[in-house]
Design a protein that fits this description.
The complex is a heterodimer of chains A (about 210) and B (about 130). Chain A has about 210 residues and is mainly α. Chain A has nine helices and no strands. Chain B is of the alpha/beta class and about 130 residues long. Chain B is about 50% helix and about 15% strand. Chain B is built from six helices and four strands, in the order βαβαβααβαα. A four-stranded parallel beta sheet of chain B has the order 2-1-3-4, with helices on both faces. In chain B, helix 1 packs parallel to helix 5 and helix 2 crosses helix 3. The mean pLDDT of chain B is about 95. The chains are: A mainly alpha (about 210), B alpha/beta (about 130). Chains A and B meet through helix 4 and helix 5 of A and helix 2 and helix 3 of B.
């Protein structure tokens, strides 16, 4: 599982400039820099003090590290998301579809409570909520964990495209009003990237599943 | 005496506000600055904020003055990490961070309750300048 988090960190580093450029267009221009700083700290933390196999314990470390190192609103938002997911994954050493769904639900609830946001406000929720719905749909059709994750990633990607068509009403981008139209939301983008990284990592570990 | 915590994205801003507010407060008034990140960059850090709240803690409680956006989110995250009995004694002031800190510090130094300090801080938004 530590390797899965490292895969997320890698994709954040690779997209540091991209996320920052997106944020410069409609925000304060620090999303990529902040997220890279946060995941750099996560990587250091996980390598110096490797946590137990317990998924919950590891995700708690990730969440705590993010809230104290990201710096922008993404810190408390993703930090809370990882800590809530940690609680849902407590005591688990491996992931099944049902647990993954519960963790995703807990993460989204955490983001909504912390950010006082709902879908349609041009935020990470516009990627994550459709991802949750797609994952749940796949699971109800008895698809494998990775197939569900693929549906979730694709739905998140569609959600990112959708954020181009709506006006921001939360966060720094809300100061821009209609000028935020046409730009994709950096937070939705980073959420999509994380799901894509998790899927790619999962596929690489289970060729042919 | 109610303690005060100043949360800003900038360490310099938080420290500067603390200095200004201390000029108006009793010398033993607790005002703790929690600005910026540990490495000195711009941002807010929920763990730093939680430590500051613990330092400012008194039986009468703590009022937290915040600047924008993630300062509020990080402070709420800090509160969520604290024990419930301590958390119940901490409130975020719905107030401008500088003027609210000064009004709040004056009120806190009088030995007022947390509610009175929060009201004084919130009242600072009516300090007109023209």
């Amino acid at each position: 599982m530590v390797a899965a988090i490292e895969a997320i960190a890698d994709v954040i580093f690779e997209n540091k400039q991209f996320l920052t450029d997106l944020d410069q267009a409609i925000g304060d221009g620090d999303h990529g820099i902040n997220m890279a700083r946060g995941f750099e700290a996560v990587r250091t933390k996980l390598s110096t003090a490797p946590p137990a196999a317990d998924i919950g314990a590891m995700l708690k470390t990730v969440g705590m590290t993010l809230i104290s190192t990201v710096g922008g609103a993404a810190g408390p938002l993703y930090g809370t998301a990882f800590m809530r997911a940690a609680a849902a994954g407590q005591g688990k050493n491996s992931l099944d579809g049902e647990t993954a769904l519960q963790m995703l639900a807990a993460a989204i609830t955490g983001i909504k409570e912390r950010g006082k946001a709902t879908r349609g406000e041009k935020t990470m929720l516009d990627a994550l909520e459709p991802a949750y719905d797609a994952f749940a749909q796949g699971l109800s059709e008895n698809k494998s964990l990775l197939d569900c994750l693929e549906l979730a990633r694709d739905a998140a990607g569609a959600g990112v495209e959708y954020t181009k068509t709506i006006i921001a009403t939360k966060g720094r981008a809300s100061y821009l009003g209609e000028r935020s139209l046409g730009h994709q939301d950096p937070g939705a983008t980073s959420s999509h990237l994380m799901l894509a990284a998790l899927l790619a990592y999962g596929r690489s570990q289970h060729q042919g599943v | 005496m109610v303690g005060l915590v100043i949360v800003s994205h900038s360490g310099k801003v938080a420290e500067g506000i603390r200095e200004l507010a201390m000029q108006m407060a009793k010398p033993d008034q607790l005002i703790i600055a929690a600005g910026g990140m540990e490495d000195g960059s711009i941002g807010t850090d929920a763990v730093r904020i939680m430590d500051a709240i613990n330092q400012a803690m008194s039986p009468e409680g703590v009022a937290v003055l915040v600047d924008l956006g993630s300062a509020v989110l990080s402070t709420e995250t800090a509160l969520e990490m604290m024990d419930e009995d301590l958390r119940a004694r901490v409130k975020i002031a719905d107030a401008p961070v500088l003027e609210g800190a000064i009004s709040g510090a004056v009120q806190a130094s009088l030995g007022s309750s947390l509610e009175e300090v929060l009201a004084a801080a919130a009242g600072a938004r009516d300090l007109h300048k023209g």
